[in-house]
Amino acid sequence: MGGGVREVPATAEELQKSLLEALKDYKPQVEPVKGYIDIVVPVEHLVEAAVKLKELGFDHVISVGAVDYIAKKQFKVMYHVTSYLNEDLSKFMVSLSTYISRDNPHCPSLTRVWLSAELQERETYEMFGITFDGHPDLRLLLLTPVVAALKPLRKDFVVKEESDNIETDYEAFESSKWW
Amino acid sequence: MSEGSASGVPHLPGMEVRPVERNVYEVQIGPSHPGSGHMRIIVELDGDVMVRVDPDIGFVHRTMEKLAEGRGWIKNIPLFERMAILDACNTTLPYVEAVEKLLDIEPPERAKYLRALLCEINRIASHLYGIGIFAVFLGHSTIYMWAFGDREVFVQLAEDLTGARLTHSYPVFGGVRRDIPDDFPQNARKAVRYMRYRLDEYAKIYLNNPNIRKRLEGVGVISKTKAAELGIVGPNARASGIKYDVRLVEPYEAYPELDFEIPVFEEGDSLARAWQRVEEIKQSLNIIEQAVDWLEKHPREGFMHDKFWKTAPKLYKDVYEGNIPYAGKYRVKLMPLFATLKVPPGKAAARVEAGRGEIFYYVESDGKEVPYRVRVITPSFRNVIAFKYVMPGHRLMDLPAIYGSFDYFPPEWDR
Amino acid sequence: MAQAKQEQEGKAYIGNLEVAAQLAKESLIKGTIAKAVDWATAFSLWPVHLMTSCCGCEIGAAWGPRFDNERYGSLPWVGPRQTNLIIIEGTVTKKMACTVRITWEQMPFPKFVIAMGACALDGGIFYNSYNIVRPWQVVPVDIYIPGCPPRPEAVARSIVELQKMIRNRGVASKWLIEGVRKDLKYVLPKEDLCGWRGEGGASYS
Question: Residues 132..151 of C with a Cβ closer than 8 Å to A: which?
Fold first, then answer.
């Protein structure tokens, strides 16, 4: 399945160097994180970088997540990927991330590259309001339309201390006896 | 009625031929259904064969990721346990590991063995629950009773160790909450012997039962490449031939020093998934024996990192040694430093092999007392895509056979 | 004369239908048939298979071999039309509230509700979540069990308490006579719970 990276990487630093080398057309940058490797590419090159990563052997997505940086007015969309079939790469986690603007959040969908991202992109769509262009079936997954309109995981939605009460009618039942 | 416009249909004068849609009708297997599982599956059927399957989930969505942003670091451990309450140690362990990476501390070795011990006890309890529920789906309620009865043995072991049946909250930052009691090793060895004998009986009446084999063999086959493409995790992937286990690939806690195997099956059908879980229970029993031997031999110190233990008041240390007669031995309250813990800014990720597969956490902190963002992906959520791509083409009565073999747990996939 | 003697002994005889009906009603209220109806209802409380949330694990264990609850006559059954108990275990989310209400309405009277766990009391550990409701605003609740999750022994105790409540207060026989449970405050949610689910949005159309 696909050609691996040229030398077998033994540590995360070697893998990071060879990934930066392989993706150098797409202007990658690295952010300091612990436990995985984070590579940031601009939005225009996201799909091509993903195709290149799939050729290198990363064949499924662990997580599709977004973080709301409200002070910088940006969303960061992260795709954590790893490999099942390529045994040298399966001990590493690589995150392909991109920054998109908060006012009109659109991000190209990577469902055609990695099928395992389909349901998780739907979840990110309903929690943050980010539209994934090119997704085959973008609709709500976990929330009802009433709650999804609040776009819950954004930072400007503040959780109240008490959750809502339902209006109930206690006397009306007596008049509606049907048994 | 003719299907298709041209093939072999006689045209009489005045007759109009047009294609007719297949007879497809929609069945909603709703949230209240015979079986356990709070989800809705919308199935489109053509006769008896499923054509399209759409999972409608979200009936137990309790918004844990958003609530975690408003609570302190230590308070999130009981919150995240409720995702997969059977497997409580495995579900909160990656969160604790990620925060330890941010705090830049590593738990002492005894704490690592204690965590691995509880992880394996939980794994066995979770697999037995899965076996029991799967049997109830197929109508084999004897195994439901046997599995739940045998599960009580291991839940009782966990209660001796941590004090609670299901919600242990055992791994904390820097180590674990308490040490093992004095009579724990002999109880653990008795439980291991008992379970080994019981697994042979399970094989006799459940896995080699001709009715069950007829129902499960060749149903829900997932090939190796398809499983890698869909991103299936856990025992489901290992039953399709993918040799991937986080304990082997990126070992954590005490697993680099423990000696165990990963069973892998090639067929990828429901029967292989059922066998996979039984074989994994056998391996977990080996690990429990090794961990208990190690814990018995080595001295009782270092269940908690020194950074937190030296801030504990003297009363805690007295109770731990057993100097206070009415309080038990080795029982410690929560360290006071946890209540106002401020984690240095950074981003970390960690993953662990839970009973149902690989669970992944991404934790981001900006220096405050509450996390900035916690992203959690549970194994059952990654298996939901199998509804859409594995089930079509089977008959409607194969739906329980496939659903049960995947060992879903809806509170886990909804978080 | 013979007629007067029979009336004094309290026996009703065919021919005087109003008197017969009156005496039958009195014996039903005060006599052994009422106790028999209550006893039968108390020992056949069948809960319906509606797992709402994570306390479902303890329900599975409570009806398992170690904490056998079937000795009280209760058998978890699949269809709401043949059961008379609903155990709301755990958190009820907005999507699930419609299901709980519809399942409760499908069950025949006299029916009972047990709210299990801290999340069913007042939200529990998810008290400030925006996606949950309080179950006592959706269905009328008889018995509450605290705990997170409650031990299976507590679930067994709640079944016993419900049995005592039925037999002491004569709930089932009073329902037979008067047709209504006067001891319980009925609940009718004014909002359209199923409208939250966006019906029609989840299918392919």
Answer: 132-134, 137-138
The pLDDT mean for chain B works out to 86
* Model confidence band, residue B280 (pLDDT cutoffs 50, 70, 90): very high
CA distance B200 to B222: 27
Question: Which tens digit of pLDDT belongs to each residue from B179-210?
Answer: 888 889 999 999 999 999 988 888 888 888 89
Number of other CB atoms surrounding residue B54 within 10 Å: 17
B neighbours by CB contacts (3+ pairs under 8 Å):
A, C
Nearest residue in A to B357, CA atom: A62
Q: Kindly state the average pLDDT of the residues A52-79.
A: 89
Q: For residue B360, give the nearest of A33, A63, A85 by CB distance.
A: A63
Q: Do C198 and A169 touch (CB under 8 A)?
A: no
Find residues 10-49 of chain C whose CB sits inside 8 Å of chain B. Answer: 48-49
Distance in angstroms (rounded) separating the CA atoms of residues B204 and A43: 57
B chain contacts of residue C79, beta-carbon cutoff 8 Å: 34
pLDDT of residue C197: 59
Strand-pairing partners, residue A63, are A80
Inter-chain residue contact A118 with B385, CB threshold 8 Å: yes
**Considering CB atoms only, which of C64, C99, C202 is closest to B145?**
C64
CB atoms within 10 A of CB C200: 7
Residues of B in contact with C54 (CB under 8 A): 60, 82, 85, 411
B125-169: per-residue pLDDT in tens? Answer: 999 999 988 888 888 888 989 999 999 999 999 998 888 888 888
Q: What is the mean pLDDT of residues A112-123?
A: 89
Give me the total of CB pairs closer than 8 Å, taking one residue from chain A and one from chain C: 76
- Residue A81: CATH number of its domain: 3.30.460.80
Q: What is the pLDDT of residue B415?
A: 81
Q: What is the DSSP letter of B203?
A: I
CB B247 within 8 A of CB A90: no
- What is the distance in angstroms between the Cα of A23 and the nearest Cα belonging to chain C? 39
ipTM of the complex: 0.87
Contact between B356 and B407 (Cβ < 8 Å): yes
CATH number assigned to the domain comprising residue B60? 1.10.645.10
Residue to substitute from A37, A116, A146, A157, interface B, most B β-carbons within 10 A: A116
Reply yes or no on domain C46-165 having CATH 1.20.58.100.
Answer: no
Domain ranges, residue B230: 25-414
Given a cut of 60, whether residue A176 has pLDDT beyond it is: no
Range of the domain at A147: 12-158
- Asked if A166 lies within 8 A of C134 by C-beta distance, the reply is yes
| pTM for this entry | 0.87
| C44–chain A Cβ distance below 8 A for any pair | no
- Residue with tokens 């489109």, as numbered in its chain: B44
Task: Give a yes or no: residue A94 inside a domain.
Answer: yes
Kindly list the domain boundaries of chain C, sorted by start residue. Answer: 46-165
Q: Is B44 near chain A, with CB under 8 Å?
A: no
Predicted pLDDT at B123: 93
pLDDT for position A175: 44
Total number of domains in chain B? 1
Q: Which residues of chain C have pLDDT under 70?
A: 1-14, 179-185, 192, 194-205
B308: CB partners within 8 A, 6+ apart: B173, B174, B175, B335, B337, B338
Classify residue A72: in a domain, yes or no: yes
Asked if the C-beta of A35 comes within 8 angstroms of chain B's C-beta atoms, the answer is: yes
In a domain, A178, yes or no: no
Cβ-contact B216, B272 below 8 angstroms: no
pLDDT tens-digit series, residues B81-92: 988 888 899 999
Does residue A61 fall inside a structural domain? yes
Instruction: Classify B27 as helix, strand or coil.
Output: strand
Query: Residue C178: closest CA among chain A residues belongs to which residue?
Result: A179
CB B367 within 8 A of CB B341: no
Which residues of B are less than 8 Å from A60 in CB distance?
228-231
Query: What pLDDT is recorded for position A145?
Result: 82
Q: Among positive and negative, which fits the CA dihedral B242, B248, B250, B254?
A: positive
